Amino acid sequence: MVATETSGARGRRRSFDVDEAVETAMKLFHARGYDAVGVAELGSELRIKPPSFYAAFGSKAGLFERALRRYAAGEANIFGRALADGGGVAEVIERTLLLAARLYPERNGVAGCLVLDGARNSADPEACALAEEMRKAGVAAIRDFIAGEAPERAGELADFVTIAMRGMSAAARDGADEAALTSFAQMANRAFRRELAAEG
């Protein structure tokens, strides 16, 4: 999608690609967190003026929502990727945890999960609500999948997985490397398998 902007001095119209803008904003929010990225910086990075920014996205939170949705629809949807490869609950959850351990460590200045950490400690209630809504949707997807084998404990088992992933994301942002996160993921997986077996 391409939007346009008018340059006041000569009346020229300059186009910008909204999809590229969302991609750029997603990377900024992911690397530094929602509060650390200001509207002025976003305008500069996206090469658009405030009127065009607000016309395209409504607000900074509106752009953040677009960025979150783009992030969750891509390769960062760890559970979705693990689920797509098939298998039972134990196999899919193991794959989920190990994939998180591989993807969360810092690469090119970006670490952790945007959904889990992008609005952490944010002073903006709208941004926090957007991230929480998406986080809850992720928990629900894991819970519904686990319920196929362990309906009585699906909620607490899903919470175990997502709390583990939140911890891994935070640790990655604090500098934990893939080896450390993989070791944790393996331990978490063993604990999950024990709890899943206890359901029977």
TrEMBL record:
It comes from the Bacteria. Signal peptide: none annotated. GO terms for molecular function: DNA binding. InterPro entries: Homeodomain-like_sf, HTH_TetR, Tet_transcr_reg_TetR-rel_C_sf. The keyword Transcription applies. Residues 23-66 form the HTH tetR-type domain. Keywords: DNA-binding, Plasmid, Transcription, Transcription regulation. It holds the Pfam family TetR_N. PANTHER family: HTH-TYPE TRANSCRIPTIONAL REGULATOR YJDC, TRANSCRIPTIONAL REGULATORY PROTEIN. This is TetR/AcrR family transcriptional regulator. The lineage of its organism: Bacteria, Pseudomonadati, Pseudomonadota, Alphaproteobacteria, Rhodospirillales.
